[in-house]
Design a protein that fits this description.
The complex is a heterodimer of chains A (about 525) and B (about 525). By secondary structure, chain A is an alpha/beta fold. Chain A contains 16 helices and 18 strands. In chain A, the strands form five sheets. In chain A, strands 7, 8, 10, 11, 12, 13 and 14 form a seven-stranded mixed sheet that branches. In chain A, strands 4-16-17 form a three-stranded antiparallel sheet. The longest helix of chain B is centred in the middle third of the chain and has 23 residues. In chain B, helix 3 runs antiparallel to helix 16, helix 5 packs antiparallel against helix 16 and helix 6 runs antiparallel to helix 11. Classes of the chains: A alpha/beta (about 525), B alpha+beta (about 525).
Chain lengths: ~525, ~525
């Protein structure tokens, strides 16, 4: 490294303590980065598709997660390598944006990196490669737009939506009852969807799990399930036509924010204070009763005394309800969250047709169901399953399915799954490549090859001959100019994805290609890696 | 170019075959560990904790054994988890579920060895589990309508469950206890109202079911030891000093005289409170919190029995039993519901004095007093009884009953075998393997009893080839016997849960092809 000197001959310090830092430059840096990225994607490669395998992850505390959701695997993997972390970010952003295809995006990025390594070895400048990839990703995305189908669904005809969700669920461990879970997911999305504005607020869907029972017992509840029970064991377990007061103030004497002290120095003061205290409790409960509430849901706890008063006045109450749940309850029942007792009025009460407590299993687990709400805009998916890991994995799967259904409501275009869309894009990119003079042409061809790797991985995981199957499908697509041909993972005998009902959302696929290209471009542009020495 | 460091230090990664082997081996090790406890002649395990005192537990309850193990193998943790869930959900069959899952994995290992893809095995297992469940459903008996028969079913189930535990010597006695207790619940699965009190001394046979309620507390000094037609106020209130709850309040005085005054006021306040409580017209007062000497004295003066420090469960149960409500304020005596019972008296069990409430309003609750030679015996007896109670309460809700002694496994194995013959393709190997895994359970039962398992299981199989056979392993005589004559029954719900959870767990472990272990979190070395 060249050193710059000032007029007195002392070197400028450009990099502090550079001897103790490890540094990689130029082609070496790029190759090291590529190798790291490829290594991450190789881990996920076997999880792709309906026959993909799961990964078992043991956290630092010894808890076990079993999943094949790309984002979850990467997040829990404890990656230390910088480029590895970039790939983790990539999968996470796909998860935030689309919710599904988190494995696919990493596999695609890995394939692109592998291809670019070959190009770099031929002496093509990384920036040219990056530009070539950029052009091709645009071609691919445009092509996807062209081959996408609009499909119709309505509040009454949800079958197409269910089919798409089933594609998502088929790669998860829950595929045993994918049909019922897909229906649950679609119904819950439809319940909260705003079809006019084509928007879905997924916050309104709560996914709650409880160990026990079997997967088939998973149900959709038009209402809220809260993992709480009545504050007093003798309060009624079932309330019909409940009027709910939703409070964020505790049933306790006020605690002014400013620092203060109440000094007791005489017997009289002691007694007045006591009287006031009692009156305070009494007033609070009376206030709730006066406005006609038949159930109190409180974010805070309350004192034994208040508890008994509530019980005494026949006013069931639930305490320590979390903020998010409180909001959901407020939305569902059409009530208002009341921060102070003085502001409690009849209009601010929420309404629910039925509130009941339900017990599970042999242990003392109880949950509170709030159903038939005035405004049934909030729903709960209640998952049962054999063990904790199963529940967690089902939660993730349901989340994916919910996201897919939401995306379809936002944009009802679909492309065909099973690698069909990738193969079709690959053909389009390949033919477009010839039109570009210059070095980019090579990069574009490489991009087409990388696209092929997704169906290739699918075929590999399904136990098919990867190259043979892929070339056969590709040839078929070109010959019949049919974009629906994909890899027949489930061995059903046809590789027409339209017949198999394997769909994916257009935006999901587009996002995959765009995100993967972006990350690869970023990695290619790095030519200097400076990392602090091990300490 | 190899990547030097993808993971953090100490994080490890195992791939493909190695990962699969690691999980198979771990899971099978766990299954083998509990295998010897299966069945009526199963052996117990001694568990010594690493905590202070190195306390020792002797048990053959699968869930208890597994809960106390420190396991590092991830697949083994999956098995422990299903056993725990089985315990929570149905209460019994915690060993069977682990053994079955272990056997399923053992068979799967062989299949993987002969180049069958795990996914194929999984789909085979799924078909087989479904078929096995249907086979069981075809053969269940439901005697819900016939009260006498139902009761005898319950007795049989209780005896079967208890026969593998420490209580097997007195299983009839305990089965009767358990059935009586559960029948009192009248269909609810809320086992809270059955209280189990353990008192060392005497023999297991001296254990008894009490129709009333027993509180493990002493009666305050100078208070009546026996009350007839008691009115009970159950409360949860501070009886030491009533704190001022307004935030920021504090006592600030400038002379000793004032301190005395305030103390007097406090006393007065407490006296008032006690007066109010007495004003409810009660002669027994039970509080969850501490009662200080002063109010206790006041109660004694008024001839009221005051019991302090009943824990929360005790309070809730007592409120449930006596039909009173748990009170915390005492300003409206007319509207507080008081509990009633015919007689409160102090009784002696062994050397301890207990308070006995008899003739209570609600007939649901009852107390089982366990007696036994040592604490270990009592603990194990409690676990066994808990298993029996769980199973019974579940059976009251789902009254379908099966025979026991390996009979359900043979029925399932037969149906699964038939399915295997009908199924084309590689799946049939997996289905066959499933039936082999099912047969491993009667084999283990026979092995544990020191019988010739190969011979017995072969006989059993031949017997089951006939339609509607009731044959199972009779461990006592060491031969194949008619299970319905021997009166060995099991609850359908338990068997179904065993079948489904074991399959689910095996499936989960089979699907794994890579294990990534994060670096263990560093803990401060406190030693």
């Amino acid at each position: 490294m060249a050193l710059a000197f000032d007029e007195y001959g002392r070197p400028f310090i450009i990099l502090r303590e550079q001897e103790s830092k490890s540094r990689l430059r130029g082609l070496d840096a790029q190759k090291a980065n590529i190798a790291a990225g490829v290594a991450v994607s190789r881990i996920l490669r076997t999880s792709l598709g309906p026959k993909g395998m799961d990964k078992m992850l043991q956290s630092p505390d010894g808890d076990i997660t079993i999943t094949n959701d790309g984002a979850t695997i990467l997040e829990q993997m404890d990656v230390d390598n910088q480029i590895g972390k970039l790939m983790v970010e990539l999968s996470r952003s796909q998860d935030y944006e689309i919710g599904d295809g988190t494995t696919g995006v990493v596999v695609l990025a890995g394939a692109l990196l592998q291809q670019s390594e070959k190009l770099l070895e031929r002496g093509i400048h990384p920036i040219r490669v990056a530009e070539g990839f950029e052009i091709s990703s645009r071609i691919a995305v445009d092509h996807l737009e062209k081959i996408a189908h609009k499909f119709d669904f309505s509040a009454t005809n949800i079958e197409p939506l269910v089919q798409t969700c089933m594609t998502t669920l088929s790669s998860k461990i829950v595929n045993r009852c994918k049909r019922s879970l897909a229906e649950i997911a679609v119904k819950s999305v439809m319940a909260v969807a705003d079809l006019e504005r084509k928007d879905v607020n997924l916050d309104l869907i709560k996914v709650e799990g409880k160990v026990g029972g079997k997967l088939e017992d998973t149900e959709l509840i038009y209402g809220i399930v809260v993992d709480k029970d009545m504050s007093h064991p003798q309060m009624p377990k079932q309330i019909e036509d409940a009027k709910i007061a939703i409070l964020t103030c505790p049933f306790e004497p006020p605690k002014p924010k400013t620092k203060h002290k109440v000094d007791i120095d005489t017997v009289e003061k002691f007694q007045t204070l006591r009287k006031q205290e009692q009156k305070y409790f009494d007033d609070m409960v009376q206030r709730c009763k006066d406005v006609g509430a038949t159930l109190v849901i409180c974010q805070w706890g309350f004192d034994d005394e208040a508890n008994h008063l509530l019980m005494h006045r026949n006013l069931p109450a639930v305490r320590w309800v979390g903020g998010v749940e409180l909001e959901l309850i407020a939305i569902a029942t059409g009530g208002r969250i009341v921060p102070r007792f003085q502001e409690l009025t009849t209009e601010k009460l929420g309404k629910a047709g039925l509130v009941r407590e339900k017990a599970f299993g042999t242990t003392k687990d109880r949950m509170l169901y709030i159903e038939h709400c005035a405004n049934s805009k909030a729903v709960t998916v209640f998952i049962r399953g054999g063990n904790k890991m199963m529940i967690e994995e089902t939660k993730r799967s349901i989340h994916d399915a919910l996201c897919v259904a939401r995306n379809l409501i936002r944009n009802n275009s679909i492309v065909y799954g099973g690698g069909a869309a990738e193969i079709s894009c690959s053909i389009a990119v390949e033919t477009a490549a010839d039109k570009y003079p210059g070095v980019e042409q090579y990069a574009i061809r490489a991009f087409a090859d990388a696209l092929d790797s997704v169906p290739m991985a699918l075929a590999e995981n399904s136990g098919l001959q990867p190259i043979e199957t892929l070339s056969a499908v590709k040839a078929q697509q070109i010959k019949e100019s049919n974009h629906c041909c994909g890899i027949d993972c489930n061995d059903t005998g046809t590789n027409n994805m339209r017949e198999q009902n394997v769909f994916e959302t257009l935006i999901g696929k587009q996002q995959q290609i765009l995100l993967a290209t972006q990350v690869v471009k970023m990695i290619l542009k790095i030519d200097d890696v400076i990392s602090p020495a091990d300490y | 170019m190899a990547v030097e460091k993808l993971f953090k230090d100490e994080a490890t990664e195992e791939k493909g075959e190695r990962a699969r082997m690691a999980s198979f081996v771990g899971a099978m090790a766990i299954a083998d560990l509990v295998k010897t406890t299966l069945g009526p002649k199963g052996m117990d395990k001694i568990l010594q904790s690493t905590g202070r005192g190195h306390s020792v537990t002797v048990t053959n309850d699968g869930a208890t054994i597994l809960k106390s193990l420190h396991i590092d193998n991830p697949a083994a943790k999956v098995l422990i988890d299903i056993s725990k869930v089985q315990d929570d959900e149905v209460g019994d069959g915690t060993t069977s579920v682990v053994v079955l899952a272990g056997e399923l994995l053992r068979e799967a290992e062989k299949l993987v060895g002969s180049k069958i893809h795990p996914m194929t095995i999984i789909s085979g297992y799924r078909m087989a589990a479904d078929c096995a469940r249907r086979a069981l459903l075809d053969r269940v008996k439901d005697n819900k309508d016939d009260a006498d028969k139902f009761r005898s079913d319950l007795m049989r189930i209780a005896m079967t469950t208890l026969s593998s535990k420490i209580l097997s010597q007195d299983k009839e006695h305990f089965a009767k206890l358990a059935v009586d207790a559960v029948m009192r619940l009248k269909g609810s699965t809320n086992l809270e109202s059955i209280q189990i009190i353990k008192k060392a001394g005497g023999s297991l046979k001296d254990s008894f079911l009490d129709e009333g309620f027993i509180l493990d507390k002493k009666i305050g000094l100078g208070q009546p030891k026996r009350i007839e037609n008691a009115n009970i106020l159950v409360a949860n209130t501070a009886m030491d000093t009533d704190k001022v709850k307004i935030y920021g309040a504090r006592v600030r005085v400038d002379s000793m005289a004032k301190v005395a005054q305030i103390e007097g006021a406090e006393k007065e306040k407490m006296r008032e409170k006690v007066q109010k409580i007495i004003g409810h017209g009660i002669n027994c007062f039970v509080n969850r919190q501490l009662i200080y000497n002063f109010p206790e004295e006041l109660f004694a003066d008024a001839g009221i029995l005051a019991i302090e420090h009943a824990d929360f469960d005790g309070i809730e149960r007592l409120a449930l039993v006596t039909g009173g409500e748990i009170a915390s304020t005492f300003d409206n005596p007319e509207s507080v519901k008081l509990g009633h019972c015919k007689l409160i008296e102090e009784i002696m069990i062994g050397e301890d004095k207990l308070i006995h409430f008899s003739g209570v309003e609600m007939g649901q609750a009852c107390t089982i007093v366990l007696r036994g030679a040592s604490f270990h015996v009592l603990d194990e007896a409690e676990r066994s009884l808990h298993d029996a109670l769980c199973v019974l309460s579940q059976t009251v809700n789902d009254s379908r009953v099966l025979l026991g002694g390996g009979w359900p496994e043979m029925v399932m194995a037969k149906a699964v075998d038939e399915l295997a013959r009908k199924t084309p393709g590689k799946k049939s190997h997996a289905i066959e393997a499933f039936s082999r895994a099912l047969i491993a359970i009667p084999t283990t039962i026979a092995d544990n009893a020191g019988l010739d398992s190969a011979e017995l299981v072969a006989q059993l199989r031949a017997e089951h080839h006939k339609e509607d056979s009731n044959a199972g392993i009779d461990v006592i005589t060491g031969s194949v016997g008619d299970m319905s004559e021997l009166g060995i029954s099991e609850a359908f719900k338990v068997k179904q849960a065993v079948l489904l959870s074991a399959t689910e767990a095996a499936e989960m472990i089979l699907r794994v092809d890579e294990i990534i272990t994060c670096a263990p979190r560093r803990r401060e070395d406190r030693m």
